[in-house]
């Protein structure tokens, strides 16, 4: 499928007739949604996400169940060594500052094998968290048992969960926003929009987005 | 209806803006490196024709970056394929996702040091949610990633290769 052709077709036909324009818009919309349907293992929207007990940079174990008053979570698989993850550090801190008090704290999980990436070991995680002023837990996925269950493939990779009586339901999977290079040039804040929708009890418009990231490192 | 149009118009606008920027960047880099390495910089609209050729050749397109360790590890295998299959109508294209600020400081020195023979192009387009699924619906966005295609036949790989694995895949396209 060729996205740009649909787009071109769409804008061109609108000038000709409104009906054709509408048709093309539907084709464009359908092809857009078609792209977002993929299931390569891991969670899809609506699945119940597993809880965990992972070691934080302060040496204590952290579980989602510890957060009695939270409405949900912004779980972000991230690390020290990936330039994309580094580019988003300040924005992850901002997310936590903005949403922890509203019931959606950030929970950061470092999924890489630290033998492959020593720059992501616990000591380095502590140093990075201190240097960047992380206000949220930064957990080690020791044994790499959690990220495969979520289906995370890269850093950064965001999962927004909503607490329910059935457990923590996956509501959003993907990117933080649409500009890794320049926070001031961002047009759509995907993760914020998703949490805002959840807080307002509305449907999330973009439930899945893609972004480039570093593959999660394994032996 | 209105909303669709706004989305479409916005997309169209942002593409135009993006290509303007790229033209400027290409001009700049050409001026800087005339006698050096000629690095072309593309947004997705520019890259798309390069990864959808219908010339009967087998094209091996590898998305990589100098900061991506598994990418750097497998680069020699792509170079080897490029050298060994040149006479069999196989072309390798190395699409770098290095950040623009590192073209001069990291990418060009890397290309020189490794004496890369395959064609290297830079790909700079922030609208990843648009082009990642357009390149392949199964791509989660992790690097490295590779496309092998010949005319309409196409395979996408979100993985690292050994030389043997890469050779096996390329040979399937030569049958």
From TrEMBL, chain A:
<feature type="transmembrane region" description="Helical">
    <location>
        <begin position="20"/>
        <end position="37"/>
    </location>
</feature>
<protein>
    <recommendedName>
        <fullName>Thioredoxin domain-containing protein</fullName>
    </recommendedName>
</protein>
<feature type="domain" description="Thioredoxin">
    <location>
        <begin position="43"/>
        <end position="200"/>
    </location>
</feature>
<dbReference type="InterPro" id="IPR047262">
    <property type="entry name" value="PRX-like1"/>
</dbReference>
<keyword id="KW-0812">Transmembrane</keyword>
<dbReference type="InterPro" id="IPR013766">
    <property type="entry name" value="Thioredoxin_domain"/>
</dbReference>
<keyword id="KW-1133">Transmembrane helix</keyword>
<dbReference type="InterPro" id="IPR000866">
    <property type="entry name" value="AhpC/TSA"/>
</dbReference>
<dbReference type="Pfam" id="PF00578">
    <property type="entry name" value="AhpC-TSA"/>
</dbReference>
<keyword id="KW-0472">Membrane</keyword>
<dbReference type="InterPro" id="IPR036249">
    <property type="entry name" value="Thioredoxin-like_sf"/>
</dbReference>
UniProtKB/TrEMBL annotation, chain B:
<protein>
    <recommendedName>
        <fullName>Thioredoxin domain-containing protein</fullName>
    </recommendedName>
</protein>
<dbReference type="Pfam" id="PF00578">
    <property type="entry name" value="AhpC-TSA"/>
</dbReference>
<dbReference type="InterPro" id="IPR017937">
    <property type="entry name" value="Thioredoxin_CS"/>
</dbReference>
<dbReference type="InterPro" id="IPR013766">
    <property type="entry name" value="Thioredoxin_domain"/>
</dbReference>
<dbReference type="InterPro" id="IPR000866">
    <property type="entry name" value="AhpC/TSA"/>
</dbReference>
<dbReference type="InterPro" id="IPR036249">
    <property type="entry name" value="Thioredoxin-like_sf"/>
</dbReference>
<dbReference type="InterPro" id="IPR050553">
    <property type="entry name" value="Thioredoxin_ResA/DsbE_sf"/>
</dbReference>
<feature type="domain" description="Thioredoxin">
    <location>
        <begin position="22"/>
        <end position="175"/>
    </location>
</feature>
<keyword id="KW-0676">Redox-active center</keyword>
